[in-house]
Design brief:
alpha/beta; 174 residues
Length: 174
């Protein structure tokens, strides 16, 4: 009798899923995604235009966009998505609207889906921002983050998203 040459076709563990393959599959997927944008408050002017272009393009494709409500990257995303379809935008604040800088409140006043975290008003802003970022990540399928190499809160959020199996696109300003 001959030997059986059958082999096991066990799937690799989930932790070894190729991120590039995952990103390529998302690009080919025509379904709508929930895409989160996080980023620095301090952004070079040229980079603001890139952020707006990406957010506008994703909104034009009909994807839901979620971000926070500060200056810089978040404000650029809010402006861009609001121009295309305000109903696609959700903004989650780390604290109440009253705790946000005056210069951003006007922009936030036009957001249809605005979520305030008044229970975080007594927390220091970095801690409230970390909690906010985590909730944003929990709500999304994909994270796009614009940061500097020393942006500890943002980098920590990206690592958390990767640990949850989210597709993360991290772009650096420096």
């Amino acid at each position: 009798m001959g030997k059986s040459l059958s082999r096991s076709l066990d799937l690799p563990p989930l932790g070894r899923v190729d991120t590039l393959a995952q990103e390529l599959a998302l690009l080919q997927d025509k379904g709508k995604r929930r895409i989160a944008f996080l980023g620095s408050r301090h952004v070079p002017v040229v980079s603001i235009h890139i952020v707006e272009l990406i957010a506008r393009s994703l909104a034009q494709e009909g994807h839901s966009i979620i971000t926070s409500g500060s200056q810089g990257v978040n404000a650029a995303v809010i402006r861009a998505v609001s121009e295309i379809d305000p109903s696609l935008l959700t903004v989650l604040l780390p604290q109440s609207l009253e705790r946000q800088p005056l210069e951003i409140r006007d922009l936030l006043g036009n957001v249809l889906h605005l979520i305030e975290k008044t229970e975080n008003n007594e927390l220091p802003l970095p801690m409230a921002s970390s909690l906010c970022n985590q909730e944003i990540i929990n709500r999304c399928d994909q994270l796009i983050c614009f940061a500097f190499h020393d942006s500890e809160t943002l980098l920590s959020s990206c690592h958390s998203a990767e640990d949850m199996g989210k597709v993360v696109s991290l772009m650096f300003f420096d």
